[in-house]
Amino acid sequence: MIGLQSSARQYQQVQLATADRGRLLLLMFEGALTFLAQARAGLEAGDIERFAHYLGRAQAVIAELMHTLDHKAGGAIAGNLERLYQFMLDHLVEGNLQKSPRHVAQVSHILDIITGAYREVLAPGLPQVDGV
Questions:
Q1: Per residue in 51-90, pLDDT tens?
Q2: What is d(CA 114, CA 112) in angstroms, rounded to the nearest whole number?
């Protein structure tokens, strides 16, 4: 089992190292959504430690997305995304304080919309996978 986990970790590292910028950003969006789902599941199960862990990981990804914005090239879109990311971070802090699955769900919904739009922009360059 350890060998399988090690192989999976190596595969992920190779995937990240060889991904273009667009694909890497998409992986970050998807990772944040996964972390938010895990945080919400932890909260609903009464596992506050799990909730806090995954919420923190989601916040770190969203903060990184915000810090990678290129305002010079992105103009108004970058500014709007920055405001959305800041709202999401603030909303997750409030959700953490209140232990609110609703806050996590709201941020997940917004991030899912952004991820879907980004996926559509990248669609011509992404490999097609059946069932996805």
A1: 999 999 999 999 999 999 999 998 999 999 999 999 999 9
A2: 5
Instruction: Please name the helix (run of DSSP H) or strand (run of DSSP E) that holds residue 94, with its range, or none.
Output: helix 71-98
Residue-number span of the structural domain to which 41 is assigned: 20-125
Angle in degrees, CA 60, 61, 63, rounded to 5: 65
Residue 71 lies inside a defined structural domain of this protein: yes
Q: Is residue 3 part of a domain?
A: no
CA 94 to chain centre: 18
Global model pTM greater than 0.85:
no
Q: What is the CATH number of the domain that holds 62?
A: 1.20.120.340
Task: List Cα–Cα distances, 29 to 2, 45, 91, in angstroms.
Answer: 28, 24, 17
Residue 79 is assigned to a structural domain of this protein:
yes
